[in-house]
Task: structure prediction
Amino acid sequence: MKLKKLAVLTLAAAMAAGTLVGCASNKKTETTGAEQKTEAAETTTAKAGDTAEAKGQIYYLNFKPEVADIWVELAGKYTEETGVPMKVQTAAAGTYEQTLKSEVAKKEPPTLFQINGPIGYKSWAKYCKDLKDSTIYSHLVDKDMAVKDGDGVYGIPYVVEGYGIIYNDAIMKKYFALDGAKAKSMEEINNFASLKAVAEDMQARKADLGIEGVFASTSFAPGEDWRWQTHLANLPVYYEYKDDNVSDKDVLDFKYADNYKNIFDLYINNSCTDPKMVGAKTVEDSMAEFALGKVAMVQNGNWGWGQVSGVDGNTVKEEDVKFLPIYTGVNGEEKQGLCIGTENFFSINSQAKEEDQQASLDFLEWLFTSNTGKDYVTNKLGFIAPFDTFAANEKPTDPLAKEIDRYMNNKDLYSVSWNFTSFPSQTFKDNFGASLLEYAQGGKDWKAVVDDMKADWANEKAMTK
Amino acid sequence: MQKSMKRYFPIFVLPTLAAFTVAFLYPFIIGIYLSFTEFTTVKDASWVGISNYKKIFMDRNFINALIFTVKFTIVSVVSINTLGFLLAYVLTRGIKGTNLFRTVFFMPNLIGGIVLGYVWQLLLNGILARFGVTLSFSAKYGFWGLVILMNWQLIGYMMIIYIAGLQNVPGEMIEAARIDGATRFQILKQIMIPMVMPSFTICLFLTLTNSFKLFDQNLALTAGGPGRQTSMLALDIYSTFYGRVGWEGVGQAKATVFFLMVAVISLTQLTLTRRKEVEN
Result:
């Protein structure tokens, strides 16, 4: 009797337990459109013999969710033009490494994927094909941008991106018109001292300007702190590398820590959000605040344009969206431009089938040299492509991309390169982000933040050797 | 009956066994093997012996996660079972609308962990905002947030199991006790609780293991923040696996150790509570 009851209960429990664990979210967005097309292509070619086999097929694992649909469309277009089956899958934001790890182990692994720089290359070295003889590498304008190891070239950058402080020109003009404004035009803001004076004065007169704060929220929700622990942290690291003339260090002195503190304090103290509340803010929140005209400035890159223009009730006009370099109080920073670089490098899976590797190379060539391909790259994907096949007029037309172009073509200014690709590990970034959050909330003093950051850097570099 | 059961046993057991082998046994064995290797994907493993196990304690994260998990498990097992049993007790007294209450209390259990985590994050942050802080302000907010979430989700489920147990207590027994002059509390303590001991076994097992290996809710509610302070064991394994180049094997080694811990704890609990069960 007891046994039977127990058995019934256990069964019921087991069933219900299924509901408890049955919540694994689907992290990948399947691109059925492309797959259907792929299947269709396969069936048509199957009749004609094994020609499709010889041509190979392409499977691209996409990193950028914001352009996922465009990639699917592009894959369909490519299959239509060449008959080569192509499948695209997109990893959800922040899950690229996870998705890639499981996809690569499958029977039909991605043939084309991306690595995020030298650190990413370290973990995928066994899978990266040497591309030094490829056509696409020969078209790369700046060969130093590629990920290299010895003589080989293993990652080819496909997009140039830039970040800085995005500002709303309409609000700035309103401020400049006020009595006793600390500056009369954007040209006068060319170092940290002038930025600080203007920002603090604007914060004090926010009611007159109709804003809630100068800077958008310093987002620190879980997984939303990359603008600070990666992008902003790039500046002190850049200057330190530059002083020592190196591109990587096992032990970081973090000697520009005070400069980091300058700008970080300015962000959190002149914001629309109380520093104690930043732990719940996301990047999207910050971009929305900017789009709705609640704040005048937000630190982000040109990829953020979509987030600004896509917000409902957006009050920012396209011509008012401009970039300002991130000034931190370093000597000679009047000549500093935006932070320009990339962490998107194409790699070809060296362990995929030979013909699939070739098919992927052919696809890259098509994408960056043919007219259809180039049209997609500049106008739909919105990429500033670093290849010599793109003429001066073949550039994206969104306001932030134009701003990047303006800064890059200004010969008086120097760009800050992206050195965060040499940051030791995700764990390092996460820990630094957590420290910054505690500092913002008032729970940690700055010296501890700096000490922990340096210790962590050395530690993580040693552990991932 | 018995004979034919025996004859068809292999046929009936085969589908489940096959599924179990493919989806559980095989990955499990591969997992143990991988904990002794260094790898990027499961296909390119190279043997490194026990060095992964030595690395487990190189950062303090694992120990911190263990301490946090143990604290969380103790608090939530006690609170979930107490509240679940109380609800079951109340809802077997024949109050009006019993069925409605039972349904309502059971419903949270049907929502997945990730969704629950995000919903509660919004709710709790909304409440904490009145005091000018957020969930990630300090580890104790994250801890109590998780406890509240877990209680809300599991109480109803445990309640159903306790109700099933309570309904099986023979009415004559209680009536006899009442005639003998037993108070309500005495009936509860001397008759009901011993009689529903099998339910306790199951509920304790479920709450213990579910709390100990909690992942989704942890990931969605706090993601370990601030820092790694509210990271439980499963989440720590996950972040070890993805957090550093070349540390995948260490994550796997942590997972093996984790498995051993869960097995030992739950088996101990099962033997202990089984001993208290009585025949009716």
